[in-house]
Amino acid sequence: MLAVDRLKKIEELLIENGSVIISNLSELLNVSEETIRRDLEKLGKKNKLKRVRGGAYLSETSDNEVPIRIREKIFLEEKQLIGEKCIELIDEGDCVMLDSSTTALYIAKNLNTSKKKCTVITNSLKIASEFENSKNVKVICLGGTLRKSTSSFVGYITTDSLQRLSADKSFISCSSISADFGVTDNHELEATVRKCMLTNSMKKCLVVDYTKFDSPSVNQICKLNDLDMIITDRKIPKKYKDILMKNEIEIVIVG
């Protein structure tokens, strides 16, 4: 297939699906992943798509979130390590809140295999499905408006439900972290759900990979000093470490 035909095909798939994954394109178009990366770079320069590690997606003006089907394919080892560590922090009989992040999905996967008995409150369709056949985990799935790009429920129905619930621990992620603005998110409604989860939990845990530091998004979830713990996969930049230690926020590094 000629390069021009390949680019046209990638554009068609983007329009059809909203996002593409490099490994899938490589197999479909019978070229190397490096060739696909160069193709996506060309389309990116023409503002045809947004590039991320592992793939690309069409960005809607109202929603800059990377689609979940791409996020599920990146930083897998880091998410697995964070997920394993979080299970150590969950006690038998706990009630925990998990947001719609793919990091929280890995917590759910590890919790499912751990056989611990607990209750999970979540706005994630994928996390709820993870426990479909579990005999040990009771699931409370928050209703609301289904946000298809993240397979999550958001909106006033979701937050109204959260107002009537409480948990021992919450594990949430975010789009980015800023020393000045705190924990932030690309999506207003998702940020509101995460804020409610933290507010209604006794212990508030942020689970993030190292790429989230120093790139503030628009919608604030909370200030850094609202947290009890940050669990991440790499050494935290010094300015964040100083702020966290000053506010007695526990830092857990995995891997």
Number of helices: 10
Low-confidence stretches: none
Query: What is the succession of H and E elements?
Result: HEHHEEHHEHEHEEEHEEEHEEEHE
Q: What's the helical proportion of residues?
A: 40-55%
The geometry reads as: globular
What is the name of the CATH architecture of the largest domain?
A: 3-Layer(aba) Sandwich
Distance between the termini: 42 Å
The structural domain count equals 2
Beta-strand content estimate:
15-25%
Largest sheet: 7 strands, parallel
Strand arrangement in the largest pleated sheet: 6-5-4-9-12-14-15
Number of strands: 15
As for the CATH topology of the largest domain, it is Rossmann fold
Tell me, rounded to a whole number, the average pLDDT. 88
Radius of gyration: 19 Å
Question: Given this structure, which CATH class of the largest domain is correct?
Answer: Alpha Beta
**Estimated structural class:** alpha/beta
Domain HTH deoR-type: 3-58
Keywords: DNA-binding, Transcription, Transcription regulation
Pfam families: DeoRC (PF00455), HTH_DeoR (PF08220)
Protein name: DeoR/GlpR family DNA-binding transcription regulator
